[in-house]
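Budget justification, computational time. The allocation requested in the original proposal was used primarily to generate structure tokens for proteins on the priority list. As evidence of use, we reproduce two of the resulting records. The first is shown immediately below.
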Amino acid sequence: MSEDSKAQDIVREMARLAMLSNKLSEMQVKNLQMYPFVFFEGVSGIKMDYDFSNEMDMDTTEDKKELNVSYKVKPPEIKHLRVRYYLTLDEKADNSNIEKRFKAIETSVRQLLWKQISVEVYFNDNLKYKSK
């Protein structure tokens, strides 16, 4: 197994744990907090919030004659999962090709967590980008 493949497996496992626990690891938080500094110019402050709450549902079937109980876990609902960035940004900073910058941060977040996760970016309290 190559080093790249091992790293991808570790990232996938960390994403699964984040989904189950509704918590990010320290490494995931640091990565998410660094992305705006990588992709945008003039960032002087970052606030970030996320929603990984999962409402996993379970069906229970009881057979009282046989004293058998079976459980079936339904897949978690994922359409509400999101990461939001609130960036304090110098408006004079050169952020040319802004759509490419938004796509880059979205891609990075999705590679770290899940491909379905929604990413929102606010500049100085104004929504500038929301992934589809």
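The second record produced under the same allocation is shown here.
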Amino acid sequence: MLYYLLMIHLWVLEKKKILFASVLKPADEVRMYKKLGASLSDSKGLDLLFFGSKKMASNHDYGIFLDGFSFNRNPFKRIQRIWNFAITCFTLKPDLLVICTWELLVPAIFYRAFWRKKIIYDLQENYFKNILAENSFKRVVLIFPAMIVRWIERISVHWISGILVAEECYFREITFTGKRGILLENKAIPFEIPKIKKRDQVVYSGTISIQTGLGELEHFLKTMKGYTLVVIGHCPKRSDQLFLHELSESYPNLKLNISNEPIPYDLIREEIRRSKFSFAFYQNFVSIKDRIPTCFFESLAYSCYILASGNPTYQEFFKKHGNGKAFNSSMEAAEFVIDQNIEFDRDRFSQEDVCWITEKDIFKSQIQDLLMEIDA
């Protein structure tokens, strides 16, 4: 009842309403809440509305959260979320939609057809490539759903006013981005850097899986001495959780903070802040090998040296920013940690290179231009 009263109250407000919407897992909604939303938090005359998981919301968040569902891969639950989103749009009549998941493009386009409002598509993933890279099914089975997703994106782009592109490689991989694509890399959230007297730990953060380096962890622990390894993040597979707990029994310097539910983003940042090294042995799967992990930007922002897997994309990143190295094996990385006296070089980059600062200004400018078009 309170939800519907809130919707009625918002419907009569005269402020411009911007609705951010996603049905992604909460760990991926940090960009929607804390980056895109935060970019507009100081803008006057705007109501910021969020449709998505409330797991990432905290007492310090801004805006109004219209839903509080838990991430679920059940197709019926996801269809229900899409239906609820459509009802929310037609009830509140937002002036601008920022769509952060392909599944919400269809109801967004229907809404635009009725009310002539604006849509921005936040392209966080190459969904077509990601679906085909799934290991659970054969490629021939996955090609059909992958093509449906790409078809929806290609058709929807004709009614979209702008596309926010999270990775530079998407301009090469996804032709429909065209001239409307604006690069907004997934950089770190700006913050002050308190001084830490001693950094004696390595951090492995984010989504914990084979894709992000879980298979290399035991080799790394066998060789590494003198440091605590903190593993913190969302570990969705039960088998991976059991593997880590068994590993912690053999290695007392392994500390775990994992869950099948997302870990609060602020806790992850705190562990990165306390760490001297960041373990980032992402596998060279076709779906992720050309992408720059968000933890790279976060690690550099917190003066945390990156230990990465051998990947030409990562090597180019370190040539530009320094403070990281790509290794052929995790054992080689562990030996590097033991043998090298690393001094972090903050002069290799500016804060704008790794933090969400320039991106904030670009996004605000894009929003202001679209709102002016609506008023015209």
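A brief technical remark on that second record: The CA atoms of residues 77 and 372 lie 37 Å apart.
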